Amino acid sequence: MNMALSLQIVVAAAARAAAAAALAGRVVPNRAPDAAPAPVHDPEAGHAEPHAPDDDLPPLPAGAERIRIPGCGYLVHYPLDENIVAVCPLHTDCKKKRTLKSGNRAGQGRCLGFLVSWLQSGSEYRDQKHHVNGFATTLPKRQRARQDFMQLPNADHWATKERPKASEEPDEPVRFV
Ligand SMILES: [Zn+2]
User: Fold this and answer.
1) How far is the CA of 106 from the centre of ligand 1 (A)?
2) Domain residue spans in the chain?
């Protein structure tokens, strides 16, 4: 008799537990679904991100730096050579290089506007040969490209790589070849 009573109690308890579980099962989907776990994972993704963007790009020699120009490629600064190379992703082996040294060529040494303008023009040229050899830009386009560049994080640091401006010289040279 006692055993039968105990069994009844156990069965009743199990039924209550099952009912509670079923109730919980109905309640959970009605709560804010999975809101809590997401923020836990997001910071981890954030920590990984600074290294992720360049994973698809070739490694750089020691001392070289790279900056992405959103949507149109990137620039690489080679401090030993004192130049910047623009790399266009639209065409195979499509690059343009300019020096950071002062010199006799118009605008020489202040090449950021020119190179960013070149990257921004990539879709206007059908292949590497035309993009590299047929490129033409204007002062307004170079000025706009420089303004766009200066909006990027770390742009101020990059601007210090150019040769200093001559007195009265604007940020973007009036002439550049
Ligand atoms: Zn190109």
Assistant:
1) 24
2) 2-50, 62-159
